[in-house]
Amino acid sequence: MAQAATVSKDTPFIWEGKDKKGNRVTGKSLAASEQALRSDLRRQGVVATRVRKQRAAFRSGAKPTSEDIAIFFRQLATMLTAGIPLVQSFEIVGTGHEKPSVQKLILDIKAQIEGGATLHEALAKHPLYFDDLAVNLVEAGEQAGALETLLDKIATYKEKTEAIKKKIKKALFYPTAVLAVAVIVTIILLVFVIPQFESLFKGFGADLPAFTQMVIEMSKFVQTKGWLLAIFAGGAGYAFFYFKKRSRKMREFLDRAILKAPVVGPIIQKAAIARYARTLATTFAAGVPLVEALTSVAGATGNIVYQDAVLRMKDEVSTGQRLQRAMDNTGLFPNMVNQMIAVGEESGSLDQMAGKVADFYELEVDAAVDSMSSLLEPLIMAILGVLVGGLVIAMYLPIFKLGSVV
Description:
The protein is mostly helical and 406 residues long.
């Protein structure tokens, strides 16, 4: 396949043509215009027979996710290890990707590299998708002449991080989804089912049980003023996410509270330690100085409490304190972690010991998620029984006592 054109704008084209041997070739490229693309293809020995813009319906779509970025690093590392030149690797990975937004991102980076930028400079121009840690590691790999090795480490790091994120989402999604269904079912019962029973009870000519009367009054409230509840719930949800995004104090309060929460708290703590150890192992193995590495490690923990602690550790290490002692001073790391880091410092294998800590806690997170799912199932069933079963019992109480009521 012919190489794509050097681009100055982000307009995607799909083209067909024939090479010097008369073979049919196709491709996807970014170009400033159709004429610029045809001209560049001719310089590469390709006569374009058909060039068209990629339709907007196909260009639009979800933005690249962190999982997409992890896959991109793994593919790029594999290509370079196989001896394929960098620009050609970008061409293969970019044009072969199924997600248009990722394809556009990769081909744009390729264009910048063709324009003379280094790989880390091209990645740094897309800070939404490539964080400082990835950019710095790529730069270290370029300077050391070991880009393939560093890309492999970045890919492994991203894959491990994504695996932890999925486990945490799995731990939180199931109970949230079940409780949401329970609330929806309860609202349906209050709005549509309870009124039918109410009209039936009016013919009894006697007072209803207190529990039944309470449920009927609740049903009337939801029918007449339910929209107020909906507005209040929507406003509260919006305010929560608004201030959570903009207020550091609120994020710190929530992160500190979730660490103390039963069941979920230990999982979040283990995940933060796993991220800390994995990032430390990756950066230190890449030759990044410890003090500088701790800056990247702090942002990768995923929890403000641990982030602030790592930044304090950085200050202590910069004054000559041992990393193990600085970790111990925070009171956030188990003794086993501190001891393993101490062994790594003494033996000169800090990256290897940090990697072992990360492996251990990643397995711990996996096991804790499975245990939590097993623990929450009966609890969720009990909550469902109280919500839905309580409404059903309230409606059938008068029928059970029909003889005395009539």
